[in-house]
Amino acid sequence: MLTVNIHEAKTHLSRLVEQAARGESFVIAKAGKPMVKVTALDAPAAGQVRRLGFMAGRIEVPEDFDRMGEAEIERLFASAP
Question: How far is the C-alpha of 77 from the C-alpha of 12, rounded, in Å?
Fold first, then answer.
């Protein structure tokens, strides 16, 4: 993996970012000590849309979901008499 010092990274940032975006991660070092690793983000491909509700119809939430465990929670947090 490529290691560059901070000055070189500042000078060639655009080129280095393009390389990282293509999957060629690199390390930025200060005085020879590795400080950070620059790598591409896992972003959706162009035209790919992340959508809400992709599990619709595949799972079912019980009607009493918001009341499940109500008695136990009340018992745990009830103030002393």
Answer: 59
What lies within 8 Å, CB to CB, of 47 at 6+ separation is: none
Model confidence over 53-75: pLDDT tens digits? 888 888 888 899 999 899 998 88
H, E, C per residue of the chain = CEEEEHHHHHHCHHHHHHHHHCCCCEEEEECCEEEEEECCCCCCCCCCCCCCCCCCCCCCCCCCHHHCCHHHHHHHHCCCC
Domain borders along the chain are: 2-38
